[in-house]
């Protein structure tokens, strides 16, 4: 099983540096405050003038493109960097609902890996701004997986695609009364999880080599000091902490196989030490008939961000403080 060290920031510069550009600009503006109010105001005015200038140029470029090659405008909208600038200047060709639907399509493979799905019910225009109402379907195979999925995959994707929304509401169907959903605020549902994550320091880390995995291939990676295991099944890639759910040893040397009679797209991972089996497509749940406890692997969120496969490592869950 291959293993890599921490990612070199310089190697990822072209793919990732623009994402933090806003933070760097704000840092420079804050630094100018030390030179007095006048300098701060002039610096902010300069930034605003430059923003308006490239915004006006971008608007003209899109107008010209829409007139000569309208299909390219949709291609612009699919590029995360260009789309983000289009959003800033109100030039995005798609409305908020279309953008959210596209964002949810991007995270559905991860939701599916935990036995769930999500649907956009509506976008409600309220006095303080648009509110997104989502409904989750299916059931996740483990509570940590469910929470991480909602926190990192869905909310992150929706807010990135539609920064103008003011809140996300989740309509969760009750098991005993599927026709009487209850309205839950994401902030209240995830408050304890966020407190946990604040202590743990969960952070996204680009791992471009994961995208090079071949069908049925497994590889190990060391991300921010945390050993993880990634494997490809058909078109999807799944990531887990490199720790067996039964013997808690490393899964180095593990192999994937499709159970006899199972449909294409199903895959079971066998621990090379205790020989326990886990369903990697469905949250790493244990599949052995003799299992006396709810054994499962610990999933790690894996999404394509800025075109680069990235994982979110939760330090406390991995034992790295």
From TrEMBL:
Under the heading SUPFAM superfamilies, the entry gives:
Fe-S cluster assembly (FSCA) domain-like, ISP domain
Q: Which UniProt keywords apply?
A: 2Fe-2S, Iron, Iron-sulfur, Metal-binding
Cite a single GO MF annotation. monooxygenase activity
The residue ranges of the Rieske domain are: 204-311
Q: Which PROSITE patterns match?
A: RIESKE
Q: ATP-binding: is it a keyword of this entry?
A: no
GO biological process, any: iron-sulfur cluster assembly
Q: Which organism is it from?
A: Mycolicibacterium rhodesiae (strain NBB3) (Mycobacterium rhodesiae)
Q: What is this protein called?
A: Thioredoxin-like protein
An example of a Pfam family matching this protein is NifU
